[in-house]
Amino acid sequence: MAALAALALSGNAAAQSEIAPSTQSTSTAPQSGLGIGVGVFQSPYLGDDNKTRALPLLHYENTWLRVAGTGADLKLGQWPVGSSSSIALTGRLKYEGIGYKADDAPILAGMDERKGGFWAGGTATWTTPLVRATAEWTADASGHSKGQKAMLQLDRRFSVGPLGITPRVQAQWLDKKYVDYYFGVKASEAQPNRPQYTGKAATALELGLRLDYPLQPKQTIFLDISSTQLPDEIKRSPIVGRSSLSRATIGYLYRF
User: Fold this and answer.
1) Which H helix or E strand runs over 168?
2) 8 A C-beta contact, residue 168 and residue 211
3) What would the mean pLDDT of 34-44 be, rounded to a whole number?
4) Got the DSSP string for 54-113?
5) What predicted TM-score, i.e. pTM, was given to this entire model?
6) Residue 90: CB partners within 8 Å, gap ≥ 6?
7) Neighbouring residues of 113: CB distance < 8 A, sequence distance ≥ 6
8) What digits encode the pLDDT tens for the residues 81-138?
9) Whose CA is closest to 59, among 97, 22, 89, 9?
10) Whose CA is closest to 110, among 101, 102, 100?
């Protein structure tokens, strides 16, 4: 089954969320799918309204390549560990639309634009009968923030009849350059109500739940909800107006 994967800290990033299989595929036959999703999410920036986005969903997978939403994975290999576990490695390229323009909220007036872009790196996934653990490292390939991120996620899919239930917990480390670019205030941008702020490395925690249900053998609907607790290094920024971010996405996918 395919469903919405967790991304990170901003509403714009949530709007660019990826669609990814809930299990590592072992099929050598190409698989593809098309669909649509609608997401509602909160922005971290003070005075910025909640956002609603409609997202086209694209999924394609073969022996070496997985394309899901705005990301693509190159499968580097999968190896058994014992009788019922395995480790898989991938190279990853994805686009994230995090960032803002000065007219997005009054607190951002006069600020330079912060741009999203492409992130490149890799993942290691350890799949066991009890839990799936995924570690990811990516760096800003577009060069806007020049930052790096690292993520560790634990999830497991349970079946209740045809309904799939996948709870997850995620910790994401953001380096100083990332936090400073998206949540910092430069000296040239400082005002009486917006003092200069220099970001520091931080770790954000997320809890999420994904539900998927097959309408037909090739048709699936899904719901993904999550809440991310922002770390102090981000909450202290004068342009941030929330301590946590919530989002929800509902979607439909047809697999050919």
Assistant:
1) strand 163-174
2) no
3) 94
4) EEEEEEEE-SSEEEETTEEEEEEEEEEETTTEEEEEEEEEEEE---B-GGGSGGGTTPPP
5) 0.86
6) 66, 73, 74, 75, 76, 122, 123, 125
7) 99, 100, 101, 102
8) 988 999 999 999 999 988 999 999 999 999 999 999 999 999 999 999 999 999 999 9
9) 22
10) 102
